[in-house]
Amino acid sequence: MAVAVFAVFIMAVRAYRWISPHASSRPAALHQPAPSTDKAGVERYQYLCTDVVDGDTIVVSSLGSVRLIGIDTPEMNYDLGVPQPFAVEAREFCKRLVLRKTVLLEFDEVKRDKYGRALAYVFVGDTFVNAELVKAGLARAYHIPPDDRYKDELKRLERDARTKPLGLWLNDN
After folding, report:
1. Catalytic residues, which ones?
2. Residue 22: which pLDDT band, with cuts at 50, 70 and 90?
3. CA 173 to chain centre
4. Lowest mean per-residue pLDDT among 28-37, 99-108, 150-159
5. Widest distance between CA atoms in the chain
């Protein structure tokens, strides 16, 4: 009897969490340190990268998950256990660039996605991480308006990777 009551309680808690909006799913204001400014006058915010979820999602100190905007990498499919082709390579490439390093985040018009992740262009020093993934053929240029600051550069890099062909584009017909 006690096990049944406990099971019902657990199911009720899960149902409540599923139907109730909670802080982690609500887009919230970004808690940002003081910005630095690049040569073009664009503000960038400094964080420490503490984890890499996949090729286009990282975790940074005091902000949480960050989705790299302007690109799309293959999915790791953690729930299914079978990553898409080049997903592991994209994640490992991103790890080499950002993990345990100071990253600079540059935000565009939309600050968070529907999953609550911050949306940003990511830099390590002068290296534009989003662009490096596309250049290596491990990400597609993926434009969602109104975030279009680097749209043309990312599209050009994708064309170059397709032409070579690299990564995702090796078997492209």
Report:
1. 67, 75, 117
2. very low
3. 28
4. 28-37
5. 68
* Predicted structure pTM score: 0.79
Domain that holds residue 163: 2-169
Tens of pLDDT, residues 75-109: 998 888 899 999 999 999 999 999 999 999 999 99
**Number of C-beta neighbours around residue 77 at 10 A:** 12
pLDDT for 81 equals: 83
Q: Are 116 and 27 in contact (CB under 8 A)?
A: yes
Contact (Cβ atoms closer than 8 angstroms) between residue 103 and residue 124: yes
How far is it, in rounded angstroms, from Cα 78 to Cα 84? Answer: 10
Residue 154's CB is within 10 A of a number of other CB atoms, namely 26
| 69 CB-contact burial (10 Å; exposed 0-12 / middle 13-18 / buried 19+) | buried
CATH number reported for the structural domain that contains residue 6 in this entry: 2.40.50.90
Residues in a beta bridge with 131? none
* DSSP annotation of 147: B
Residue type, 84: Q
The percentage of the chain sitting over the pLDDT mark of 70, rounded to a whole number, equals 79
Query: How many domains are contained in the chain?
Result: 1
